[in-house]
Amino acid sequence: MKRYGLALLCVLSFEVGAAAAQTYPVEVQNCFETERFDGPPRRALVNDTNMVQTILDLGLADRFVGVSGIAGVERHLVAPPGVVAGLRQFIDRYPTLEAVLGQNPDFMFAGWNYGFTAARGLTPAALREFGVKTYTLRESCIRIGKREPISMETLYADLDALGAIFGIRDHTAAAISALRARVAAVERKVRDVSERPRVMYCDDCFTTNPPVSVGREGMTSLLMRLAGGENIFDDVPNSYIRVNWEEVAKRDPQWIVISDHHIPLEKTIAHLTSDPQLSHVEAVRERRFIPLTYAEQTPSTRSVDGLEKIARAIHPERFRP
């Protein structure tokens, strides 16, 4: 039997409508601007797997008239039977401005490089011109300006903002409280570790092309640190970045986090373990791989699942019964 909500949904098992009534208008911080809402969205859209998972976990699926960015990876979404199948995917790839406007939305939840991109013309500013309000994933704001250093508060800000926007602040406050408790439990277990293993996040790691990793401002890097590890690219002041294999080999990760998203885990591991230039890398030599779903390693209600998995992998002695 699947654990649909893990510890999170244990505190979210009450109906959204049971929360105390919320008054409007409300204002939320949306990257470096303030967005005002006079009432909850009526025709909301959401893009990308991590944000879709968040709205599923918060019980908001019926508030969204369309989702995008999940085609081919629906199997990774966790929800009660029938819920994922009931999501209306209005496009089978990341959307353009035209595709979004074709849904006649009044709100969109996405992020920079998580759907919002000037290259396709889909930006909060462009949507605003058509009367569409937005909320931008807080982690992704680093793509357009200098935000505060990433912390779990960056994730909690997303949940609090969604609570305000949709009138379920009591609901999201309970979710945040549950997540804080789980993070604190991990931190207590690894607080005094004497060695912090070198960890790499590796995406697009199934060919000799430059892979994607993460700098210190990405959620995956934060999870590594909280789990008692050290991101090998923590000196890069950005979130998700292209790196080269020579630098990976030089930095010699002891563990590699792999996102089992569009590319099967087995294909990625087969490449890593067959590439001669990586043969001396400790993580490859010892086959120390940590598979996470996309939602577990990017900002979502499942990020703490990812934290717990990394911590248990790199410090198993701290989690024995």
From TrEMBL:
One Pfam family it belongs to: Peripla_BP_2
Name of this chain's protein: ABC transporter substrate-binding protein
Gene3D superfamilies: Nitrogenase molybdenum iron protein domain
Domain Fe/B12 periplasmic-binding: 43-318
Keyword list, A-Z: Signal
Signal peptide: 1-21
Species annotation: Enterovirga aerilata
PROSITE patterns: FE_B12_PBP
